[in-house]
Amino acid sequence: MAQAPALLSLATWGGATFLFVFGLRSFRSALRPSSLRTEDAVSSGGATLQATVLAALGFSLLNPHVYLDTVVMLGGIGSRHLPADRPAFAAGAATASLVWFFGLAYGAGLLAPLFRNPRTWRLLDMLIGAVMWAIAFGLVRSVPGVVAL
C-alpha cells in the first residue's frame, strides 16, 4: 500500500464511505428501535440446529475481517518477532481470541435482559453510528491534501 499511493487513497476513501454509510444505517435504525425477543424464537420452535450451524459458519468463514485480522494484521505483527518468539506470540493471540469470544458470548447472556428494552437498542445504534462516523472522519483527515476540519 505504501508503494501505491493511488491504491491507498482508494482504500481510504472506500473505507470512509463504507463507515459513513454503516453509521447512517445505525442512526436510521435508532429511529425505529426493536428489542430482543427470545420468547418469539422459542415459542415458534426457533431455528434448526442445521440452520444455526450454517449461520455461524457463514458469519465466521465468510466474514472478510476474519482473514484481515488473522492473516494480514496478526501475520504482519507476528512476522516482526524473532522466529523463536513466534510460538509464544501465536499462543498469546490464540488465548486472547478465546477469552474475547467466550467473553462476548457470556456477556451477551448477561446483557440479554437489558436489550429487551427498545431504548437500549436505540442508544446502542446511536453509539455505533457515532463511532463509525468518527472513524470515517479520521480516515478522511488522514488523506494528504484534505483540509483538517
Note the topology.
Layout: H1 5-31, H2 38-43, H3 49-61, H4 64-79, H5 86-111, H6 118-141
Helix pairs in contact: 1-6
In short:
The protein has 149 residues and is an all-alpha fold. It is built from six helices and no strands. It has a domain at 1-35 and 118-149.
Structural features:
single chain; 149 residues; mainly alpha; globular
Structural class, by secondary structure, is: mainly alpha
Number of helices: 6
Which stretches are low in confidence, meaning pLDDT under 50 for 5 or more residues running? none
Task: Indicate the radius of gyration in whole angstroms.
Answer: 20 Å
User: How would a textbook summarize the main sheet?
Assistant: none
| SSE succession | HHHHHH
What general outline do the C-alpha atoms trace? globular
The helical percent reads over 70%
The oligomeric state of the chains shown is single chain
Q: Could you tell me the strand content as a percent range? A: under 5%
Count of distinct strands: 0
Distance between the termini: 25 Å
Mean pLDDT: 84
Describe the structure.
With 149 residues, the protein is an all-alpha fold. The chain has a domain at 1-35 and 118-149. The chain is 75% helix and 0% strand. Helix 1 (5-31) runs antiparallel to helix 6. The protein is globular. The mean pLDDT is 84.
